[in-house]
Amino acid sequence: MPEQTLxxxxxxxxxxxxxxxALPARMSAVELQIVQLRIEMREQFSAVRSDLEGFRAESxxxxxxxxxxxxxxxxxxxxxxxxxxxxxxxxxxxxxxxxxxxxxxxxRAGDEETRRYMRVLHxxxxxxxxxxxxxxxxxxxx
Length: 142
Prior knowledge:
1 helix; mainly alpha; rod-shaped
């Protein structure tokens, strides 16, 4: 490779010096861009953080509203169940009273039939004893 001339070398050095002289200005521009990026990122992070806090507040409000709705629905179901249970108790009470009345009537009828049958059996026993006594010889009294 042929050696460069002194003029050429000086020109190259001058270009490099010019580039190096422009470097601080470029570095300042890059530094300014970095500062602006930091500011923008800080603002965006703050915005995201506030959005998340707002979402959290909305979520908690929604959860609380859902809880309130569920409590109201549970209370409505509880009230309906109590009313139905009271109605069933009333119906069952009436049915039990009717069954009790029917059972008492059937027991009374059964008691009457049993008494009648016992009287018939008693009369039959008495008539058989009378027949047996007729066939026996009589004892004398002393």
